[in-house]
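Objective 1.3, modelling of assemblies. Example input:
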Amino acid sequence: MKKSIFGRLLPVVVLVGGASMASTAWAQAGAEMLANTCAGCHGPDGSSNGPATPTIASLSTDYFVMSMKDYKSGKRPSTVMARIAKGYSDDDIAAMAKYFQTKPFQRPGQKVDADKAKAGKALAKKYCESCHEDEGRVGEGVGVLAGQMLPYLQYSMVDFLSLKRETEKRQKAKFDALVKDLGEEAFQPILHYYAGVK
Amino acid sequence: MFEIDRRKFLVGAGAATATSTLVAAPHVARAAGGKVVIVGGGPAGATAARYIRRADPSIEVTLIEANKDYYTCFMSNEVLAGERTLDSLKFGYAGLAKAGVKVVHDLVVGIDGAAKVVTTQGGQKFPYDRCIVAPGIDMAWGALPGYTAEAAEKIPHAWKAGPQTALLRKQLEAMPDGGVFVMVAPPNPYRCPPGPYERASLVAHYFKHHKPKSKIIILDTKDAFSKQKLFEQAWAKFYGFGTANSMIEWVPAAKGGKPSAIDVAGMAVQTELDTIKGAVINVIPAQKAGKIAFDAGLTEGNWAPVNKATFESKKIPGIHVLGDGSDAATMPKSGYAANSQGKVTAAAVVAMLKGQPAPTPAYVNTCYSIAGADHAFSVAGVYTFDAEKNAIAEVQGSGGLSPLDASEADRKREVQYAQSWFRNITADIWG
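Predicted structure (tokens):
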């Protein structure tokens, strides 16, 4: 699989702000303190060891904030995240988003079907790459797909296709085109491909 | 490299201003330096060690743990069901050593809070600037007549993972089909509140596939338990609960379930009204903080009272007590809670060594239980610190249980998330 230098450097380029532990009285907890509460499920600094729980490191702040707010409101379906997201204020969520954006997405590799991944690469280029750039490493307002946990990607796809989770306009157009051209089963090779990106 | 795990099962708990007397340093972010000695390398102690080193490598952290390896209690019910190896629960200390923690394998026998020195059985002495004690739990031997440490060699508690888990698994495997497995569930508070009921579920799963004529009787000292409706729903779905042929029978205290004595020779549990014989018996006894917490004078009643923002002992300044052994209610005594408290304590200790006030804490608990094939559910809690009450307070409107009407697909997803939780939290704790 091609490794883009740009993609590897990007997390460094987007480093912003730091986590401040400083507090006065019993103010809002600092970003790192808040972010540390996620690691038990999402892995140290937000990089998951799998098999299913997604990595949240390196997500764009827009996507992180939107996800947490949608979990909170119930707009986005979840098992446990709605209950957890409700425990954090908008300020907490913004602080956590900033923190995780600066953390690298660790991609030690996961087991995928090599044939599917190969077939998925061409499909991804046609149907996904315009938003999920650089083999899905870039997530400007969208999820980072490269190296994301395969079961999580599959759950997300089920939720999108069953309309439990809202699809954004451009996303919907691409999804509709893929389903029309090749059927719903064509998502699987794409997911195997993205899951296998290192 | 990861395997996508197809496992059907999982396993799965006035000092608010204590720092105000410290003079805040006027300048920013200097290295703290200093010596921290941590007693106990379970989830709470190991997390604190890792996160102190992460925050400030100038701090010398020594972790003293009697055992070379730690076996997690969480997920050990899966071992009892034959769904996981005991070895998969084993974690060593190489990861912490790599993070710059000095790991010493010895038993701590004394903590002198005045001289600030920790002493081990091996005769070593470790001076400290701040000490962190993660004592875990001990069984309250004697609380239930007949149930002693010696009795546990025949009637295991299996509430600390390791040889006890292996013993109970061996007994369940050797039990003939049609046998009765009797479990005694403990009084509150205890480690892993849903654990006994998950254990009953997973043993039932094992019986269903290997010894279908067998029965499970839970004799309870309580009238209600954690995730009760979710467990009962799963038991009805998988094990006939609520019918005459139920594989699992739960006898609450109100219906005579409270055990009064254990008859080890007769392999029976006595209650007020009855004597219940078991082919295999598992007694999960009442619990208290680990021995070192008592020896060091850190306890009040069965647990160690602490400042909930810093986990500094209310009995002896300079010593922090966290995890299952502390009185950190409202958090349950869970692995996630211990991990979360380890991070809060680490941040407090780093700040205090710099002469700064401890930062505002944030705590979380998430705990999964697997109750049947592709069937898990969770409880979650997000907490903040209530300074007025020195309490860990759940954020209103957050947390709680998986819904009773969750889809089968969601129950199945929670199994995968439970397995993920195990991998991630153990990586976060031991590296």
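DSSP finds nine helices and 23 strands in chain B.
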